[in-house]
Amino acid sequence: MLLDEQNLEVRHLEKVEGIIQENLRALFSRRDELKEEVRSVRRDMWELGRHQVRDFDDVVTLSMEGSVVKNAEIQYEQNERQIERHERQRACPYFARLDYDDGGTGRSIYIGIYSLRGEGARRMEVIDWRAPAASMFYSFDLGPGWFEAAGGKRQVNITLKRQFKIEDGELLLMYDADSAMYDEILGQVLSENTSHNLKVIIGSIQKEQNAAIRGDTRRSCLIYGLAGSGKTSVGLHRLAYILYHNRDKIRHEDILVISNNSIFGSYISGILPDLGEEPVDSTVFHHILSDAVGDRYDVQEYYGYLKAVDADKDRARLLTVKCSLEFLSWCEEYFAAFNYKLPTVKYRELTVFSSENVEGRWDAQRFSSFKAGYELLRQMAKDQAEEFFMFNKQRILLDIEQENQELSEREQTSVYNRLKREYTANILDEIGRLNRLDPEKQAVDILKNYLEGIGEDGYPAAELFREFQEGRLSYENALYYLFIRILMGETDQRTSVKHIVIDEAQDYNLLQLRIIRKLYPKSIFTLLADVFQ
Prior knowledge:
The protein has about 525 residues and is an alpha/beta fold.
C-alpha cells in the first residue's frame, strides 16, 4: 500500500477526531444548560406549583408541571448518552471503509459502531454498522453488490474494502480485502473472538453470521453452531440490529434474554452498550418458573433436577412422556374444548338462560385457555339476560304492577331494573359455581387420565398429588403445573415483551418452550443453540 494513501487515511482520521471533539465541546456546553434547566423546573414546581389537589383543574396543572420536569430530564439524559457515545467514538471512530461506484458516481463510506455527523453538517462522516449500505461490507467481495435503499434495491460496484485497527484515536494498522495480509490478519481477529468472553465482532462478521444478524426482524430466527463458534455474540449483534431498525416499534425495555444460568446476564450488560444500545433485561428460566408457580410451592433447583434425571432412568422416561408433543397437545385440547356446565335460570315459567340459549354460538367455539372460554360464556350470559328482559319488559312490568299496585310508574321501572341486575348476577354466580376449577386437581386428573389412556401406570399422578400436599414440587412437575395454570388462564401473560433471546435453546425441553411461548404471546424469538448436542 502506498505511503501517500496511508497518510491520507491518517489525515482523514484526524479530521474525524476533530469533529468528535467539536461535538463533545457542544455537548458538554449543552450539559450545563440542561442541568440548570432541570434544577430550575424542579424548583419552580416545588416553590410555585400546587401541593394540594382541590379540583380537576389542580390535577391538570400538576400533570402539566410533571410533564415539563419529565421532558427536561429526558433531554438531559439524551445529552448524557450522546456524550458517552462520542467518548467511545473518540477511542475508535470506525473500523472499515467501503468504496463503491453508484451509477458512475464514486462514493466512500466509513463504518463504525455509531454513526457520526458534524454539528450542522449534512454529510455523514461515519455510518452505523447496521445501516443498509454497511451490509455490503459483510455480504460482498470486490465487484458487484447491492443494498436496500429508501427507493428499493440499489445495484453498485464495490471497488475497495479496507479495515483499520484504531486504538485511543491512533491508526495502528490498515489493510485491504484484496491484500496478501488480509486473510492472515482476519484470522487473528477471528481467533481472538473465540475466547470465553463475548466480544464485539462487527469488524470480523462473516457472510453466514451477517445473514443471521440482518435476517427479517419480523420473524423468529434460529442461530446454531458448535460451542465457541460465536453464536451467542451473533445473537446479541442481532438484538442490536433489531433495535436499530425498529426504533418506533421496539425499545430495549421490550426485550428479554432467557438463559439457564445467571452468568450469561453479566455478559450481556457489557456487550450491548459496545454495540450502540442500552442493556436489556435478562433472567434465568428457573426464576420465571418460581415466580409464576407462586409462594405456595418450593421448586426443585434446576441443576439438582438435571442430576436426578440423569441418575434415575425411570424418571427420565416419564419426563419424555410429560414433555411429549402428544401429551402437551392433549392438555391443550382438553381446555380448548372444555365442557362448561351451564345453569338453567327461570323467571316464573319463562327461561331467562339455559344451555339452549347459547348452543348454536357456543358449540363452534375453541379457546386458548379455560379462562378465555369462561369469560366468553359470562358475556353471553349477560347478553342473554339483557335480551330476555328487553324482549319481556312489558310482561315483567305488568307483573310488578299487579303485585305492587301502590308503586308509581317510575318506581315500577326501578324494580324492573333491579330484577334485571339480580337475575344477571344470579346467572353469573351459578356459572362460576358450576365451573369452579382447582388447578392442582386438574393437573392430577389430567395426568392420571392421560397415563391410563396410553397404558401407563398412574403412580406419577399420585406422586404429583403427594408433592402438592407437601408443598414442594420436583422441577418437571412444577413445569407441568405451570403449564396447566397457563391453560386455565390463572397466570398473567407478559404482553409487553416483544422479542426474546433464548440462550442454549437445545437445553430446553418442549414443555419449557411451550410455557415461554404462551407466557409471552406477543414476542418474536431468537434461539441460540448447538444442534449437535
